[in-house]
Structure formats: C-alpha cells, structure tokens
Write a structure and sequence with these properties.
heterodimer, A: about 525 residues, Beta Polymerase, domain 2, five-stranded mixed sheet, B: alpha/beta, Rossmann fold, 6 helices, globular
Chain lengths: ~525, ~170
C-alpha cells in the first residue's frame, strides 16, 4: 500500500500505534529524506543492525514520524562496504546517531563531514565494532588512549572551561566544554557517552521476557515510558492483545511518572534561582506521591509495574479512590506554589528570556517532547495518535511559544494539572477484567514497535526477534538524542552561572542516549 | 511574600528520625579509629559519583535532601569536589568509559576516606553485568567499605549505609 504522505510502497506493521515498514536502497535514502522533510516528517530515530548471520550484510534503520504514523525505513547495506550517504544536513539530529552507529557497527555515513567518534571513548579500539554479531558477548578490549577533537574557539579574551564528566552536583556524567568571554558563553560543546554500558548488546543475550527488566532501566527516571514501549513492541511482534484494563492502568502509571518528574524539576528550578523554598515544597509533594506509589503499586518509581501482556499489579477500587483523593491534595498545593512562583519577581527575572530556543530553531533542528512544546511545536503522541487508553479522554497538549526557561517551567505546571485530570478520568473509567494476557510465542524475524510519550518526550523501542523467543536487535531511543544539541544553542549569549538553570529546564537523559 | 510565609508556616517541620546503622551492609571491616569517626559523625562531606547508573539511584539521592530525610540536619552534606570530600557515594555498574574518571576521583579524595556503593548495580553489576562496556560492581574498580543493595535503594537505606560507614563496628 502507498503511504498517505509519500509516493512509496509500505507494509503496515501490526501493533498498537499506526506504523509502516519500507525497504529503500541506499542510493534513494537522501531523496526519501528530502521528501519526508519537505512534508514536515520528523526524524524520530536512526540505528543500525548486523544481518550478516542471515547472509544479508548490514542494515541502516530510520524511524520517521508522519501524521499518519511512524515509518520504519530499512536500508540494506553490503557486508564488504557498509557505507551510506549521510543525512545530517537534511536532519541535523542524525549527526550523533550516525556517529554512534558507526562506532558500534562500522556502518559509515560517507558524505558527512563530521566523522568523529561518539560512544567509543577508550573502551574499544578503532576498527572494532562491539555490536557486530561476530563479537562474543564475553569479549573484552584493552583500554586505549582517548583523544577527542573539540572544536576550538579562538580570539582575544576567549578561554575554555572544561566541566565533567564528574559534575559538582548529583548529576549523571558528561563533559561540557564552554568557550567564554568574560561571563558570556560563546560556544558550548557537549561530549557524552560516558555511561555507555552496552545495553543494546545485552538485549541480544536475552529472551523477550528477560528484556522487560532491562528496558525499564535504560533511563530510570522514565522507567514506565520505556517499560510500556517495550511491552508494546513485544505485543506487536507476537500478536499479543493486552486487556483493556491493563491499558487503563498503563495510562495511570505513565501520567503518575510525568507528575512525579515534573514536581521534582519544578523544585530544582526554584532551587537554581536561589528559591530553596521551592525545592523543599516540591520535593515534599514528590515524596508524598512516591510513597503513595510504593503503597499502591509496590515500587516508588513504578519499576517493573508494566510487563509484556499487561501490568504486574491491579488497582482495586478503594485504592483508586485513595489515589484520586491524594492527587487532589497535591494539586491544591501545586496551585498555591504556582501562584508563588508566578509572583516571585526574583525567580521570574531569572526564568524569563533565559536559555531561549525559538520556534524556528526548534523546527530546523528537530527539537522534540516537552522542550519542543515550550518552543511552539505542539507534538504529543497522546494527542496525535490517541490510541487506548487516551482515545476517550481528549488529552490536551500544553503549548508555549517563547522557548525560554520560563516557558519550560509554565509547561510543566500545565502538564502536571492535565496529567492529574487524566489520572482521575482513567481511574474512574477503568474497565473491568483481567490485567494481563499471556504473551504469544514469537516467530523469528518478527518486528514490533513501541512508541510512547514519556514525560521528557517520545520514547521509541524498535524490536526484531530471533528464534526461540530471543532478541535479534533492539534499539531503545530517548528523545534526549534530539534535544541535547539544542542545549548547545540555548546557552548562546547567556552567562555561565545560568547554565545549570538552563540545563535543568531541559533535564535531559545521559543514560538514555549513552546506552 | 505573605503567601510564601503562610505556606512555610502551614507546612511546619516534616523531617523524620534518621535510621540506625546496619552492620549487614558492611563490605569491609571498619578501618577508621574512634577519634576520626567522632569527627566525621557531625561533619561528613560526601562527593557523589555516578559511574554509569540508569539515573534511578540518583533520584533517591536527591530525595535524601528532601525535607522528610533532611540530610543536613545530621551534619552530612554533599560537596562539589572530591578534594573536599570524606566519602564517595558511587552509583551504577562502572562503565568502562567512566573507569578512569572514577579512579581519578578516588585518588583526588584525601585520606582517610570512605566509599559507599549504592544500588544493585553498584553491589553486583545488576542487570547490566560485566561486558565490553561495563566493569560491573564498584569494588571491581575501587575499594568499597559499605554496599547498599536495592533498585533503587530507598533514601532510608542509603542513609543507613552512610551512617554505617561512619560508625565503629565489625563486619
């Protein structure tokens, strides 16, 4: 069948979200991407796979987001010469994904200028590709010296501040290279990959059942989003239908995760502008919510609450009512705190026009998720593709256009209130019945996609099964891939002391992109 | 300003009592003498190092600073540099890309120093294990005094681990 938006033949892909597959020769990749870009499709993910054991060389994969659904494009590449024309000039967000794919699989973008390594520091040597099937799971490489060519900035009075990987606060490790004049930031260059711990290789040693636990730990703060995306992918690949009650419960869990993270961020955003009152108040409310979650679902962060086929724990009627009562109490306090934040001149002075990403820049660079909605790009999977349980709830996507720290603060407040409304509706409309269906055995070579709007943005899991219920290839994709490069732009012209505030307003994942 | 003060007054003090140390968490015999421990007890400076975690343990370390746990009332605080620290609080399986940074952070911490490994990954390598990219447990890279299991361990467990590390006692 043809895709609505492009004149190419696609195969529909079974699963909860609307999705299609297409195979495209490498020579046609750039043409396809140019047309997709012209039709406002966004690049959701890019990854590679080793197909040599199926005597088919390698493959490059792209996930493109169209209004009618997600298009999974596969580009077969030869065993001897796995090169393809790079697309980072068409989709800037592809740059780091292409470099990661080159490090892990030796699939090389031939046209692009930026061929620097990304995930490979010193843990394996140049010319070795740990995600290739010929590399045993027990393989070890000797540490090699790690040199990385940062882009130098020169001129009178310019100097550099190197920060990290071990930061001053309780933050994940990464390196930031600031080039500054006086207090002003001229350029920021990020170097990530410090947390690369071989997650994708690990998946390939697991069964579909075992993979659920690992998926929930790709990025611990988004464990529900990843677990749901993983379950959705497995269910699609195996033809398993989760019961309606399980879908309602997944919606409740996902919105609770969004509320908890936003409460924590709102506290830290207050803290970063010296309003420590905000930190203590919001973290008190967050702790209240975490304790309620532990009580109702058995885990403070809801880890392992979602499993392929359904959910691990039901929410009885009385527990649902106590959850609603509890959220109502938190909501009243958040409303009070919002008016305190709104009227606090000192805090607003720091928030407004700090770390701005204009809608034009966001569009050009492919900003996504929460940060994109603060810069006028109103994409939200819950709204764009309202599958159950969101179908009947009419979820509203929050949107602001100024793209500064203040907009990202305001957006979080809006989303906390909307998620509370959704949880309440989901609890009240929870369908009766089972909470888990048995997972059907998978055929080898079956594909499945999970695509979920986590609190940070869209989380994607692309799965292809191997024989005996095992995983041939699994790529988990975090929205932080798209958003990290925008942080480099957001800090231009700002002063160094505002960097922690700007960084926190994005609150991007390191572990989710280092994998 | 009135609303802010009203909110503070309305909230009151929510801090809960601190947990007691738990000798079961010890990975090594206490190496520090009574005198040093007496001083550490009321003025402990901690440097947190994320050596490759999923960010789950970090959430609970943040939560320890919330008013319910109120770490600073116990004289315990997080510092910005290992050179100011008495204790390293290390999370994650140690990724091979963080191995050197963790070693250097440990070397930069002045003696006498303590190391507390946090979470299932810090204790055993957890779900990530050992691989081309992961060194596994923290004690594979630096000596660990106390190891706190959990995925992630609760703030009370982490606090218990910290207090165990600065208490006299045998393994």
């Amino acid at each position: 069948m043809p895709l609505n938006e492009l004149p190419i033949d696609v195969e529909p892909l079974a699963g909860a979200m609307p999705a299609f597959c297409a195979s495209v020769p490498a020579a046609e990749l750039r043409g396809l991407c140019e047309q997709a870009r012209a039709r406002k499709a966004r690049l959701v993910a890019l990854w590679g796979s080793d197909e040599t054991q199926r005597s088919a060389g390698y493959a490059l994969h792209l996930a493109l987001g169209f209004p009618s659904g997600l298009l999974w494009v596969s580009v077969p590449l030869s065993r001897e010469n796995p090169h393809y024309p790079g697309i980072a000039d068409i989709y800037p967000a592809a740059n780091r994904m292409q470099r990661a794919t080159a490090d892990l699989l030796g699939i090389i973008p031939s046209a692009d200028a930026d061929r620097r390594k990304w995930l490979r520091h010193g843990a394996w040597p140049e010319g070795s590709f740990p995600l290739r099937k010929t590399v045993e799971s027990g393989a070890r490489f000797a540490q090699v010296p790690d040199r990385y060519p940062f882009v130098p900035v020169e001129g009178e009075g310019v100097h550099e501040i190197p920060v990290g990987p071990v930061h001053a606060g309780t933050i994940e490790p990464g390196h930031f290279r600031f080039s500054i004049v006086g207090e002003k930031i001229l350029r920021l260059e990020e170097r990530l990959g410090y947390k690369h711990k071989g997650i994708e290789k690990r998946f390939e040693q697991m069964t579909l059942e075992e993979g659920a636990k690992l998926a929930g730990r790709v990025s611990g703060d988004s464990t529900v989003a990843y677990a749901w995306a993983y379950a959705m992918a497995v269910e699609g690949a195996t033809g398993t239908e989760p019961p309606p009650r399980a879908l309602g419960l997944r919606g409740i869990l996902l919105e609770l995760e969004r509320i908890a993270n936003h409460l924590g961020d709102l506290g830290y955003l207050g803290n970063d502008v010296a309003l420590s009152f905000g930190f203590f108040q919001f973290w008190r409310l967050k702790e209240d919510l975490l304790r309620t979650q532990a009580q109702l679902f058995g885990h403070r962060y809801l880890m392992d609450a979602i499993a392929p086929g359904g959910v691990a724990k039901d929410l009885p009627r009385a527990a649902g009512e106590s959850l609603i009562a509890h959220l109502a109490k938190i909501e009243r306090e958040v409303a009070t705190l919002k008016s305190i934040y709104d009227e606090h001149a000192g805090a607003q002075d720091r928030f407004i026009m700090t770390g701005q990403v204009t809608p034009e820049l966001a569009e050009r660079m492919g900003l996504t998720g929460l940060a994109a909605r603060a810069s006028g790009i109103a994409h939200d999977l819950r709204v764009d593709y309202p599958i159950p349980p969101y179908q009947q709830l009419d979820p509203r996507a929050a949107s602001h256009t100024r793209g500064d720290v203040a907009a990202r603060v305001a957006l979080r407040f809006d989303e906390v209130f909307e998620s509370m409304r959704l949880v309440q509706a989901l609890v009240q409309q929870l369908p009766p019945g089972d909470t888990r269906a048995p997972v059907v055995a998978a055929a080898a070579g079956a594909r499945g996609l999970g695509w979920v709007e986590g609190w940070r943005g869209e989380v994607l899991i692309a799965l292809e099964t191997a024989g005996a219920n095992r995983i041939h290839r699994l790529h988990p994709h975090d929205p932080s891939w798209q958003n990290w490069p925008l942080l480099e732009h957001a800090v231009h012209g700002n002063i160094v002391p505002d960097f922690p505030l700007i960084n926190k307003s994005f609150n991007l994942s390191y572990s989710g992109v280092d994998l | 300003m009135y609303q802010l003060l009203k909110q503070i007054a309305k909230t009151g003090i929510v801090s809960e009592p601190a947990p007691l140390p738990d000798a079961a968490l010890r990975a090594l015999e206490q190496r520090l003498g009574q005198v040093i421990l007496k001083h550490f007890g009321r003025a402990l400076a901690i440097r947190h190092v994320d050596a490759g975690s999923c960010n789950g343990c970090e959430l609970e370390i943040h939560a320890m600073n919330s008013p319910y746990y109120n770490l600073e009332r116990l004289g315990i605080k997080f510092v910005a540099s290992p050179r100011h620290a008495d204790m390293l609080l290390v999370t994650g399986p140690v990724s091979r890309n963080m191995e050197t940074a963790l070693r250097r952070t440990w070397e930069a911490t002045p003696d006498p120093k303590l190391v507390v490994a946090i979470g299932d990954c810090g204790c055993t390598g957890g779900v990530f294990g050992e691989s081309y990219a992961s060194c596994g447990r923290v004690s594979n890279v630096i000596p660990v005094d106390v190891a706190v299991p959990g995925c992630p361990p609760t703030p009370v467990s982490i606090l218990q681990g910290i207090l165990t590390a600065i208490t006299p006692g045998r393994k």
